[in-house]
Design goal:
The structure is a single chain. The protein is mainly alpha-helical. Helix 1 crosses helix 2, helix 2 packs antiparallel against helix 8 and helix 9 runs parallel beside helix 12. The two termini are about 25 Å apart.
Length: about 500
Amino acid sequence: MVLVMIVTLYTSRVVLNVLGIEEYGIYNVVGGIVVLFTFLNSAMASATQRFLAFDIGAENHNSLVRTFISVLIIHIVIGLVIILLCETVGIWYLQEKLQFPREKISSVKFIFQLSILSVFISVVQVPFHSLIIAYERMKVYAYLGIFEVVLKLLIVYLLTYFSMDKLKLYSLLTTLSTAVVFLVYAIYCRVQFAAVFSFRRLSLDFKKFKILLSYSGWNLFGNLAAMSRVQGHNLLLNDFYGPKVNAAYSVTLQVQNALNLFVNNIQLAISPQIIKKYAQNDISNVLKLIFQGARYCFFMMFLLLVPIYVNMEYILKKWLVLVPEYTVNFSRLCLIIILIDSLSGPIMTGIQATGKIKKYQMLVGLLLFFNLPLSYFLLLIFKEPIVVFCTSITISVLALFFRLYFLKSTLNVSIFSFCKDLFIRIFLTILLTLAAGYFLNTFFAEKSGLRVLYTICLIFCMIVNVLIFAMKKEEKNTIMKKINKVRYE
């Protein structure tokens, strides 16, 4: 994970330097138009992971095979629908609404078409990716992640080596990289899970199609709402401020994607277990995994994000030669969103595992969708781009409590127990960390050359707080046993 994050951040820096702030902003906002239409795929992706893991947990091989062929066909159809939408609605928005220097029209159209192809490939890859996660082949998933970042490094090298139009070259190399990664996923799954590909002996299960489409249909609105927060804000900022602010937003998304690798990998390890335990009707362990998952995700991200938040300006200046305006504030606010959302992941998996998602998606999706109109309204009033992140923070907090309500209604979870187990620990840890940070900042205020020592002291205080307040007694005992085992070996 660390290697992937470092390489992701490094390649973002080089690409920004090679393309320049304006062209980097153009590339990301044009690609964002295409990505906006992937809400169709996002809705189906969560259904794919849920049903594959459920069939594996229930040890129903025939159902697993039918599920896989069904989701593969559905994803191909979704990919074709996305192409249709991009070549109609997307082209219209590109030509009529998008702000960019008109002398770049040739490059913009080239990027747009290659972005469509990349998204189609990524959509068809989802069933293969989900199969690896459902079987909990986490080492393979990690190796494939490393392979992807190696390709990113190769793209960066080729981008600096060739002298042709950098914007077009970067788009072409990124699309080729996506195609290569898809082939590796497909070949691995075909070899390692050969039994799943025995669908030639089975007829198409239209009942399975109906179940999958019904489930993903309710996910559709929620995923469109979540997508509107990311890509909708990107388009709003383009409409109000142009591609230079898009560059700052795009850098922030790179930071977000790199840091989300940590929390996503934790959640990927937990999610299949939650779904499999539910398939086995082991509700007590389902709740245990949800509680533990939310706590582990939050405090691991807390330890990672707070030092980054404090040193954000310094980090960005060291990471990027060119730091677009607003990037520091955007990135700091983005870290708060990541921390809040880290609590929601296991809760969402628990709700998705039950299959009772109709009301959940309608209400939470409506709340998330409110991000876009509220941001537009606040941009008109305050005329400050950071309001889109302030809106997201507020909505993320409200969405967390909505999710807790639905977790209670679907799995009969005690909200009081959840708050006692998690929120009190979070409150105490954050309060004492703020106190420690204030004291350390006062002590080191006049000593600008001691930034590293300040950060080390802050991290030490945070670790002590997490060990004392965030971890349960049995978890502390487990850690001590492992430390003693390593010490005496």
